Task: structure prediction
Amino acid sequence: MPLKSEIRARASALRDVFANAGALPVETDILQPAEVLLDLYGEDIRARAYVTSDALRGEQMLRPDFTVPVVQMHMKGGAEPARYTYAGEVFRRQEDDPARANEYMQVGFELFARDNAAAADAEVFATIQAALGDVHLRAATGDIGILTAAVRGLDTTERRKRALLRHVWRPRRFRALLDRFAGRSPMPPSRAALLADADPLAHGFPDIGMRGQAEVAARIEALREDAGAPPISAREVDLIDALLNVRETLPFALEHIRDLAVDMPAITEATFRLQERIAALQARGIDVARLEFEASYGRTSMEYYDGFVFGFYVPGRPDLPPLASGGRYDALTRVLGQGREIPAVGGVIRPGLLVQVEAGA
Amino acid sequence: MSIKLGVPSKGRLMDKTFDWFQARGVALSRTGSEREYAGAVDGIDGVDLVLLSAGEIPRELAAGRIHLGVTGTDLVREKLGLWEQQVEEVAPLGFGQADLIIAVPGCWVDVDTLDDLDAAAAAFRARHGFRLRIATKYHRLVREYLRDNGVADYQLVDSQGATEGTIKNLTAEAVADITSTGETLRANHLKILSDGPILKSQATLWRSRVADVTEAEQATLRELLVRLG
Result:
């Protein structure tokens, strides 16, 4: 294990690298209001972040990452475009794996820019990769935006599309919903009985709680509408599956996705963006011919990313978390911006792991 | 030194535990006044009785301060991370059976499965501006269960007692609690989701995997476990 002082020195050197690349060094509080993070990530974040409280401010979280406070700071009146860098500890609760660190340093680079998303994506990826130096790493990339475009383009009800989009980051649930909407899984008997009931609200139970009978009636109406809608076609489900299975080097992945776009015109725009990103990466000197692309990359662990995603891994060490990771989070700025939004992309490096890997550990 | 056996300090759980040990030739009893938490063990030498709140027994086992302890599966699973590495199940005791379940108002005729709950939570949040509240004291178990089943847009609110009343009091929309007969749930106009319980629990005898034992204690422990086996 490298010494803390060594990691700290490396972190500040990395921050200097990012500052020299034009980023403004910023600091954020370690204690973050829990409410914002809970509303964003849902209750699951409690399993990943430490929650503490006092009688005055209520629940607070030990900073699980810098992205949220940096976005909030920027939305309060940052310049445009803006580049930020930071270095500091983040805290992650580890209940199931004692080998994983619950406190470690992160150094980040975040870019807020309205024009040329492809150039911004490439700038962040290239800046992070350059900062990682010579250590031999495997880079993985993906693009959540292609999947969400495919879902938006499905020939089905808006309600079903919304339900699928809500669970893009929960692959198992997404699959269950897709199977149900495609008529591939049987309807639960209780739902069949509910739909067959001419007057389901004559149930004899008292109306208790805040979720009133109007809401129950509205959901029954939605279920009836869904039962009346035709299933998502097998062809469309196959196309989504084919898309999710794309896993090749970038040029082949692009070709493959272009072929899919012939039958799935809804992803045409997203395919152009992928193509522009490849060109922008190439212009930055990245060897795109050898860069991996997985269409389903980033669906499990990076809930706020909604476009380009990437990570750098140590080959042959699946036990180690990524040395660096990042992506585009336009929707996050929309949620935190209270009516305002700005496209944003960023990434972080874990200097502790970097020092460890460089030392050959 | 001696083997320390932790047992719930009051109520039916204590009485039934005493009966279970009695049936195996180990007599546990409380000593001193009615209110004093002291106990005695007859029928085997070298074993001390430690009377504790059932909720504290998992922690004491994990800390190695007691060698054996009687408490519910629910409490061990809720309170100990990586519980299999800290405690070992010796024997289920056949009483204190209860299921950890999720219940919603009976008047929610549209909600019977977790899939329904998830959809109701999404609509509830859109309409009321906050995440659907589930009252419980089993935060970890419920959160893991809902995460594994892909339920979103809910929040857990802490309730250490009278949990079934929270819905009527408008402090929660659903509850996750232990039930054995479902009587209290029905009396409060609630129904259980049909997906099955989050956990089936019963009173269980556990052995700490981390408590230190001398050679003499090891011999006592072995003899005791043979008797109880």
